[in-house]
UniProtKB/TrEMBL annotation:
Spans through the membrane: 372-389
Domain called External alternative NADH-ubiquinone oxidoreductase-like C-terminal: residue spans: 349-403
Name of the protein described by the UniProt record: NADH:ubiquinone reductase (non-electrogenic)
EC code(s) of this entry: 1.6.5.9
Alphabetical keyword list: FAD, Flavoprotein, Membrane, NAD, Oxidoreductase, Transit peptide, Transmembrane, Transmembrane helix
Catalytic reaction equation(s): a quinone + NADH + H(+) = a quinol + NAD(+)
Gene source species: Pedobacter montanisoli
Domain FAD/NAD(P)-binding stretches: 6-325
Family note: Belongs to the NADH dehydrogenase family.
Pfam families: NDH2_C (PF22366), Pyr_redox_2 (PF07992)
InterPro entries reported for this sequence: FAD/NAD-bd_sf (IPR036188), FAD/NAD-binding_dom (IPR023753), NDH-2 (IPR045024), NDH2-like_C (IPR054585)
């Protein structure tokens, strides 16, 4: 007798994939998550790992543990390389895997807009290995600055540049400024702190362009108070690993350029090219079904649900991925029971960004606030959304410790950073 249970394969154990699989618990389907990592990453706190504020383990959670006891769930660590839509089959690094329904929840990857020299020389921060690379590099450069042979070398090692004035760029620049103010003084007494410079470079006229004008202005004010030099309406022209060339002839000599200037969908080869739209995202209908297919869906950052209300798709944020995962679980079950599906409706919970101790900005619909209360709100929301009680506790204890001690605990070069060979410039780790 033919097995009537359908197999739903989800590629990606991020915010969307995890939520979808959870909502399929105790249903009459088999669920398989495939991910190249065996853990879920809480990306909003990656910058704290990169700047020595949190240990990497506290923002990662083993995917198998999330689904402990879920009988219809399986997980495999593998990278999906290609979709064979004719055969309903995935080509992966551990062999072929067949599906009845496929959900692509692969998130996004850093976008260097085709500038391979910048891609090779600048540091992305989209995954835990990348954040750890960055932590090592920042610390290695500080060590190297102490033994620099020329003033030019020393200046480049002590100039830290963050490119991209969205929440990640603002938060990273703020965290490096705090590192300089509270930590370097004690750890590197020989360093002349006046020589340590932090720059934030943004192409558009304002920081946090998706937020209110109050949040934009206040975040800039906070950063400048903390000693960050902010350049807006300034585009990066080139970066050869030593000199960052900006528009209007500006140049910054820097060994550390952190790239948070854009993302693109982490698509998998094999879909009809017509289904791929702006930003390398996959075009889906209001039920997250990929255009041109009946049994392939996409959710989260990689999906572009283009409607009159959302001409650019939904924002690439965790709540959009989670809500799409939740809704798609209901729709997949409805499809299997020949019931009508429901159109996805995004509930915008607002946006927030933290700049540093006691300094954050929050927009919740028409309610906007900045400063200490916003900072507590930011911490509360991030603690609550972290996966796992242990992680919540570890992060909470770390934050309380840092608040009172002015210290950042994990300044370790455990795996020294080495630049990749030129042939292998892919940053997707
Ligand atoms: C530094 C940073 C800060 C952020 N801060 C915030 C914030 O404060 N608030 C907010 O709401 N959002 C924030 N975001 C955005 C948020 O993290 C994303 O919107 C969210 O993670 C998208 O969820 P997702 O499920 O689509 O993908 P992800 O959570 O990115 O998960 C994708 C998963 O797919 C896996 N994968 C990808 N390709 C393959 C493949 N070919 N084979 C196997 N596995 C694959 C990856 O390993 C990953 O586990 C931030 C993002 C970054 C990078």
């Amino acid at each position: 007798m033919e097995n009537s249970r359908k197999k739903i394969v989800i590629v990606g154990g991020g915010f969307g994939g995890i939520e979808l699989a959870k909502k399929l618990k105790n249903t009459n389907v088999d669920v398989l998550i495939l991910d190249k990592h065996n853990y879920h990453t809480f990306q909003p706190l990656l910058y704290q790992v990169a700047t020595g504020g949190l240990e990497a383990d506290s923002i990662a959670f083993p995917i198998r543990k999330i689904f402990k006891g879920q009988k219809n769930f399986k997980f495999r660590v593998t990278e999906v390389q290609k979709i064979d839509t004719e055969k309903n089959r995935l080509n992966t690094t551990i062999g072929n895997i067949d599906y009845d329904y496929l959900v692509i929840a692969t998130g996004s990857t850093s976008n260097f807009f085709g500038q391979s020299e910048i891609e090779y020389n600048a540091m992305p921060m989209k995954s835990i290995p990348e954040a750890l690379n960055l932590r090592s590099m920042i610390l290695q450069n500080l060590e190297a600055a102490l033994i620099a042979e020329t003033p030019e070398q020393e200046a480049a090692l002590l100039n830290f540049v963050v490119v991209g004035g969205g929440p990640t760029g603002v938060e990273t620049a703020g965290a490096i400024a705090e590192l300089k103010k509270h930590v370097l003084r004690n750890d590197y007494p020989e360093l002349d702190l006046k020589k340590v410079n932090i720059y934030l470079v943004e192409g558009s006229p304002a920081l946090l362009s998706a937020m209110s004008v109050q949040a934009q202005e206040k975040s800039r004010q906070f950063l400048e108070e903390m000693g960050v030099t902010v350049y807006t309406e300034t585009r990066v022209q080139s970066y050869d690993g030593k000199t960052l060339v900006l528009g209007e002839g500006k140049q910054i000599h820097s060994s550390t350029v952190i790239w948070s200037a854009g993302v693109k969908g982490a698509i998998i080869e094999g879909l009809n090219p017509d289904a791929i739209v702006r930003g390398n995202r996959i075009k889906v209908d209001v039920t997250n079904k990929v255009e041109g297919y009946e049994n392939i869906f996409a959710i989260g950052d990689v999906a572009a649900m283009i409607t009159d209300q959302t001409p650019n798709g939904h924002p690439g944020v965790a709540p959009a991925a989670i809500q799409q995962g939740k809704q798609l679980a209901q729709n997949l079950l409805a499809i299997l029971e020949n019931k009508p599906t429901k159109a996805f409706e995004y509930f915008d919970k607002g946006s927030m960004a933290t700049v540093g101790r006691n300094r954050a900005v929050v927009d919740i619909k028409k309610v906007r606030f900045q400063g200490v209360f916003a900072w507590f709100a930011w911490m509360f929301v991030h603690l609550m959304t972290l996966v796992g009680f242990r992680n919540k506790l570890v992060v909470f204890v770390n934050w309380v410790w840092s608040y009172f001690s002015y210290d950042r605990g994990t300044r370790l070069i455990i795996r020294p950073y080495k630049k990749k060979n030129l042939e292998n410039t892919s940053n997707d780790i």
